[in-house]
Amino acid sequence: MVGSESQGGVGAAVQLPVWPQSVVTVVGNPRAGSRTAAAAASVAELLASELGTPYRIDELIDLVTFAPAIFQGEQAGAEPHAALESAIDLVSSASVIVVATPVYKGSYTGLLKSFLDVLRPAALAGSVVIPVTISAAPSHKLLADHHLRPVLAELGATVPVPGVILEERDLEDLQVVVSGWIRDHAPTVQATTIALQPVAEPTPAR
User: Fold this and answer.
1) Is 21 left (phi over 0), alpha (psi -120 to 50) or beta?
2) Smallest Cα–Cα separation from 102: which of 152, 51, 63?
3) Is the pTM above the cut of 0.70?
4) Of 80, 110, 96, 89, which Cα lies nearest the Cα of 188?
5) pLDDT of 111-135, one tens digit each?
6) How far apart are alpha carbons 125 and 158 in whole angstroms?
7) Which H helix or E strand runs over 142?
8) pLDDT tens digits along 93-103
9) What pLDDT digit, counting tens, does each position of 153-167 carry?
10) How far apart (Å, rounded) are the C-alpha atoms in residues 143 and 16?
11) Distances 62 to 36, 112, 114 between C-alpha atoms, Å
12) Count H helices, E strands: the chain?
């Protein structure tokens, strides 16, 4: 586990944040209950476990469950619109966001793009984003990550590490694949989330 001074390890010289740091997962697969969602949840859980206290898993946002609100706004009805607003609030306040998509026609999905389009300017400022992409063919495996990063940067996100780039065959032994990625990159994720924390105002002298 990436540790604090009392835990030792890679993060021994780093002061861990003292308040809960939420890890939110966003899934852009247009099919409910997809393998993309399962893979993204595994990445988030393993990463939060490696980072340790005070990082905590927050809600998994499966965009397909309120897709009408993403495309139609308030015309979709009160319940889908409320779910969309809740999702916007969650990602806008998250410390770490796992954003997952299948590779779809050489890029990420239109559902994910439409959700990112409705976010406020700089909505992801202060957040570390981990792209997770799943491709059917090795020749397509880098395409979604390549197209997604500029959009995340435009929204203010910090993407300090390579994405979790998966092929469908990797899903059969997902924990082994993701564990290797986390071992290599969790220290950078942790250090970046700490660096992005706002500096507290000094207490005025009495």
Assistant:
1) beta
2) 63
3) yes
4) 96
5) 999 999 999 999 999 999 999 999 9
6) 7
7) none
8) 999 999 999 99
9) 999 999 999 999 999
10) 35
11) 10, 10, 13
12) 6, 5
